Amino acid sequence: MKHCTRRGFLSKGVMTVAGGVMSQTITQSEPHAHLAGKRPVFVSTWNFGQTANEASLRKFEAGGSILDAVEEGIRLTESDQSNASVGDGGKPNAAGKVQLDACIMHGPGAKAGSVGGIEDIAHPISVARAVMEKTPHVMLVGEGAKKFALEQGFTAKNLLTSKQRKEWRNWRREKRKMEAGKDNHDTIALVGLAKDGTLAGGCSTSGLAYKMPGRVGDSPILGSGLYVDNEIGAAGATGVGENIMRFCGSFMVVEYMRQGLTPEEACAETIRRIARLDGRPIEDLHINFIALDKKGRFGAAGTGQGFPYAVTYPGYSDVLQSKALSRKHIGSEGGNDPIEDQLK
Ligand code: SD4
């Protein structure tokens, strides 16, 4: 399997050989490669999504379900203490406490589970799955979510590393305002498609760094940070949650795929629509989406420079650069929204 950083990807040639398999690195100059349709396939946010995808694929190839595979990939990222935006080692809130958000969704039956603002539990994605499978509810938050996790056998752990404690203390001393779009957010959203067409997805984050205690973002909100529709496809989000959850961003992406847009077009059209409704320049929104449809086609779009996202299927694994949208893209390219046009 081929591994490459975004930097490496951007600077190298198009053809690569991985484990004896000739795989084609997909660039924006090859607009049709992402439409080939592969099964199984895993798509996730950011560079670190690549190792998560690969863990997902291993789990799937070892006989796990697509849901098991999604959970496994996200657990890997949650365990990585060097990742300061997901799970153990995530940046804390303004009070110095790590509060985690996560959700999981299984296409068949549209089953879902979610936790918001959970503390001291390293794998919120697995707690979200337990909420889905072992309770009549969809979402648990705060103390109740932690109590449920402990009852289910999860162990409590202090998730604040000494590095993050030191940075938080500096932040508090300097009263620095975290600048949105810098290194203060990087959620993992990971969606997968099985050979038989079953879809699943998950999303996990420590949320915006130094957020207000109790603040919950888009990531655990079904339809915002993640959505899976087993007839159509799946989508996930990363970025400033406040600019995603007001618009049911991931649900919107899936609905654009239902209307016939490709995954990449669906992500881009969602960003354009959010920007029109919000009124601020696209670059100021800091939102990014990944999408995967039922045929195995995938794509992504983000504001400003866009963002890296990972794609993995048997014999291929790489980090790609999303479509990038800036203020010159605010209008719908190609009249994708006839209903809106009629209402004008
Ligand atoms: C949040 N959407 O809590 C998350 C943060 C994030 O990439 O995605 N970062 O708002």
Structure commentary:
It is a single chain. The protein is of the alpha+beta class and 344 residues long. It has one domain (42-336): (Glycosyl)asparaginase (Glutamine Phosphoribosylpyrophosphate, subunit 1, domain 1, 4-Layer Sandwich), CATH 3.60.20. It contains 10 helices and 15 strands. The protein has helices spanning 6-11, 49-61, 66-79, 124-134, 142-151, 162-174, 242-245, 249-258, 263-278, 338-343, and strands at 15-18, 21-24, 41-45, 99-106, 111-119, 139-141, 188-193, 199-205, 226-229, 233-239, 287-293, 298-303, 308-313, 316-321, 323-325. α3 (66-79) packs antiparallel against α4 (124-134) and α8 (249-258) crosses α9. It is globular, with a radius of gyration of 19 Å. Bound molecules: N-hydroxy-L-asparagine. The site of N-hydroxy-L-asparagine has 14 residues, from β10. N-hydroxy-L-asparagine binds at residues 85, 185-187, 205, 207-208, 217-219, 238-241.
Into which percent range does the helicity of residues fall?
25-40%
Overall pLDDT confidence: 86
Quickly give the structural class: alpha+beta
How many structural domains does the protein architecture include?
1
Work out the strand percent. 15-25%
What is the CA-based Rg, rounded? 19 Å
**Unreliable stretches, pLDDT < 50, 5 or more residues?**
1-30
The strand order across the widest sheet is: 6-5-4-8-7-3-13-14
The span between the termini is: 50 Å
The global form is: globular
CATH superfamily: (Glycosyl)asparaginase
User: What is the H/E string?
Assistant: HEEEHHEEHEHHEEEEHHHEEEEEH
What is the number of E strands? 15
CATH topology: Glutamine Phosphoribosylpyrophosphate, subunit 1, domain 1
For the record, the CATH class is Alpha Beta
Q: Please describe the biggest sheet, giving its number of strands, its sense, and whether it closes into a barrel.
A: 8 strands, mixed
What CATH architecture do you see?
A: 4-Layer Sandwich
